Amino acid sequence: MQWTDVTWRLFHGLTHPWLIVPPLLVLMGLPWLLRSRPLQIYLSRPAAIALLFYLLAIATPTATLANWLLAQFVPFDTGAPADAIVVLGRGEVLRPSRIQTSVQLWQAHRAPEIFVSGAGDAPKMITDLQTAGVPVQQLSGEYCSRTTEENARYTAALLQPQEIYHIVLITDAPHMLRSYLTFVSFGFQVIPHPSPFPTHRSLSSLLVLREYVGLVSYGLLGRFQARETPLGLPGINHCQL
Q1: Predicted local distance difference test score (pLDDT) of residue 1
Q2: Which of 91, 14, 1, 88 lies closest to 55 in space, CA to CA?
Q3: Residues 143, 166 contacting (CB under 8 angstroms)
Q4: What's residue 166's pLDDT?
Q5: pTM (predicted TM-score)
Q6: What is the DSSP letter of 76?
Q7: What tens digit of pLDDT does each residue of 162-215 get?
């Protein structure tokens, strides 16, 4: 949990170029105060490489291509009905588009209930969904999960005992592939339905690149392999909304 908090804070710091570019420029310039030209080049090179990589990472073409590649491995939404709509929390910036998307699907009768998942997001999403007109009787969720793995694990522990296996899954497009594979690994039949992507350029670019790191780490940890429903998770009842 602490590691997740640290990485997300670091990630959000990287979305602000004015926090990253000036220090790198300073690091590039300081070695040139030395008299030795070979030493100047040698010491300024790492900062120059880091700056180039960062600028490429936040560039719109990079995000567009990387996101397109992720989307090629995600099935299309067939429009079929499901047992529940599952909405994953991903922070305040991405919350409104998820609420709008889930309400639209619920109004289209894609599923009779909406389940929200995510520490810090779930209670607020429940409130927003009620404000949008979804009856409280058709809302449920959990507010303990802090990672995609926990989203899927806690959702399975709460929904599958109710014989809910067929879900429409809502998250942003870059996050969808990792989420889809993780939920499938817990036995869900998943219909992916990406919510609109943020317009904040550096945020969207870094979100996409972050997902490539997440896919590799989840694959190495075996989190895409078939697993049993995690019944009886300690403290799960205290997480339920």
Answers
A1: 46
A2: 14
A3: no
A4: 98
A5: 0.80
A6: P
A7: 999 999 999 999 999 999 999 999 999 999 999 987 665 555 676 787 888 889
In the three-class reduction of DSSP (H, G, I as helix; E, B as strand; rest coil), residue 87 is classed as strand
Tens-place pLDDT, residues 29-40:
888 888 788 888
Q: Which amino acid type is present at position 19? A: L
Beta bridge partners of 88: 117
**H or E segment at 93?**
none
**Which residues does 186 contact at the CB level (< 8 Å), separation at least 6?**
152, 153, 155, 156, 160, 227, 229, 230
Question: Number of helices and strands (H, E) in the chain?
Answer: 10, 5
DSSP one-letter code for 194: P
Segment 65-90 shows an average pLDDT of 92
Residue with tokens 């910036």: 93
| 65 CB neighbour count, 10 Å cutoff | 11
DSSP state for residue 77 in the 8-state scheme = P
| 139-142, strands of its sheet edge to edge | 139-142, 114-117, 84-88, 166-170, 189-192
Contact 205/59 with Cβ under 8 angstroms?
yes
